[in-house]
Amino acid sequence: METQYDLNDLFDKGMELFHITNTAYPLTPVSLMQYKITDREKYRGFLEADFEKCTQLSLYVHVPFCKSRCKFCEYVVVSGDEVELKQAYVDHLLTEIKMYGELVGRNSANKPKIVGFDIGGGTPTELEIPQLEALMTAVNEQFDLSNFFTKSIETTPINAVRQFDKLKIIRELGIPRISMGVQTVNAKLLENMQREGGIAIYREAVDNIRRAGFTLLNIDLMYGFKDQDYDDFVNTVNYAISLEPEYITLYEMRYKLTKISSDASYVSKAKLNKQYRLAFEILEQNGYIANYGKNTFSRIPYDEGTSSYLTRRVINATPYIGLGAGAQSFGHDYLAYNTGAANKSIVKYMSDIDEGYFPIQDIYDLPLEESIAKAVSVMFYFGYINYREFYERFKIDFVKRFYDVLKYADDWGLLKLESDRCIITKNGVTHMNGLIPLFYSERSKAELMKTKPLS
Length: 455
Ligand SMILES: C[S@@+](CC[C@H](N)C(=O)[O-])C[C@H]1O[C@@H](n2cnc3c(N)ncnc32)[C@H](O)[C@@H]1O
Ligand code: SF4
What we know:
alpha/beta, Arc Repressor Mutant, subunit A, TIM Barrel, eight-stranded mixed sheet, three-stranded antiparallel sheet, 19 helices, 41% helix, binds S-adenosylmethionine, binds iron/sulfur cluster
């Protein structure tokens, strides 16, 4: 594909702006403004037409409640008086599920197959057992979840310790995979981040998860904190391995819009790269495998380690509906953020539903080039792009479309070109922020080139 930009310039600019040129696309919340559907009366018809084009679909349900908000957290989590609105929130969530069910639901022919289902947050285990049961009942009533795929849910260590009965019920509701954030074993860092946890509870949390019958456990760890030295992080990785989860996911701290965003400038790209490299070596030595650059490590052969929802999202760019406040949806040709994404509040989300509207804050009717840029950015989360899956989704030959970019990336040792996929090299991983923009749309390349670096 022809571009008016010099690939070297794009690459250098991507590297310079590494805080934003990551696997999340677009660059800013207002980047796609020109594609926004502004009249909410049009949402229903637009969504219906988009789902007609989908043969497969995943669902994500967002639960924005936590015991308290960790200072590093970037997600939609409510605070203050809204914490008391749990039951009202669930009631509205059930309505939203029904609204989408009526558009995509289970009963008529040619409806897309559901191939992924995750409940995330926030902390979904903050919901009470009857609320979780009602949620699963509503989803099963509206959608056909009978295909075989791995459903997943998230919890925290403190909830796993205190809520054995709830874990058992969740397992009985047909969810075999659970993900729990350990983040770090450094007590001081946990305290600074106002996060409950620590070695005193992590093992008991895992024991409870196992006793409840979960056979697929993922543990999240974080790196890239200002006050996190290498020994600290190595201790954390070793400790997580000692808990024997099936999977371990490394999260590089993303500072944008967090309470500690001013720490971002203290963390260099070199430090982030070294932390990842250290963790990769230790994990690999202990049988946790991922291709270099990927964040989820698995000790189960032929298992990517992520839930079906996320695996599909990354490898296949399978469309998904995000349900709940602030949830993101990426349809066949649209990107949307539910109400609450910007102000991290559930009040407007609920009033949109009360007024009979889809609770959407922003929805963009994407041209193909933007959908491709979004999908390819996300694919780098696993560090490779499968040509056949790309073709299945976009009906475009990836190699032909990106011939010049692939040649450039091959020449510079950023990507290794194989017969069925291109895979990021070790050099590519440390330069991923330069590599990703090469696949951007012309609009986002222009946006990137005129963005100023963080001061
Ligand atoms: C939605 S959170 C849910 C997990 C659960 N509430 C917990 O904290 O254990 C999923 C993971 O995202 C990661 N995370 C949270 N804030 C982040 C940020 N600002 N940048 C990168 N990763 C982040 C954490 O590792 C967290 O476990
Ligand atoms: S990291 Fe988890 S527990 Fe902490 S605020 Fe975010 S979602 Fe809640």
